[in-house]
Amino acid sequence: MRAVRAMFDAIAPRYDLVNRIMTFGLDVRWRRRAVRELGLRPGSVVVDVAAGTGDLSRELAAAGHRPLAVDLSSGMLAHARTTAPLVQADALRLPLPPAVADGATCGFALRNLADLPAFFRELARVVRPGGRIALIEVDTPTSPVLRAGHTVYFGRVVPLIGGWLSDRAAYRYLPRSVAYLPPAAALLDQIAAPGFTAVERRALSGGICQLVTATRGEP
Known about the structure:
- This protein is of the alpha/beta class.
- The protein has a single domain, classed as 3-Layer(aba) Sandwich (Rossmann fold), CATH 3.40.50.
- 44% of the residues lie in helices and 23% in strands.
- The protein contains nine helices and seven strands, in the order αααβαβαββαβαααββ.
- It has a seven-stranded mixed sheet, with helices on both faces.
- Strand 4, helix 6 and strand 5 form a beta-alpha-beta unit.
- The longest helix has 22 residues, at 144-165.
- It is globular.
- The relative contact order is 0.16.
């Protein structure tokens, strides 16, 4: 945990810039899609876990929601560009009472969490019955042609971009961290286990990104 926190502290100053360049701006589209798929009424309280510099929190606020930005990295929160309240905390131990939120989001952080089932249990604890979650994460295309190109770009070009603009070691780690994600079916089962229903996974942009949504069931 300390190593991951230190890594994100180090890349915080140029995190948004590197994201825009290496995704050609697609990350903005993915976040907006996640907010739409929440399907919550304006004014809903949404916990943005691993909020980073607040990109997703800003999209939530633009949609009329009331985001709460939570991140482990003090460096990320120091560079946050959002009016949402900021909380430094571990995603596995959110300092929130049960059923306090109408929804929760998490952008590109699942592969950095040591215990995904524990994280999904924590989301189930803080999201009210009937509330919604939307989780964005990188993915690997199923098409052999797209997969080959993606492997070269994500494995070789992204570290070069990150090393040029930010921290080389961090952007060597980030592509490799995809290996820590469970297979899609196992991921959906883990989300359903603590009581989420209507669990759906959508491939975005040819399969280089995935969006998972679910509804908190009755206890």
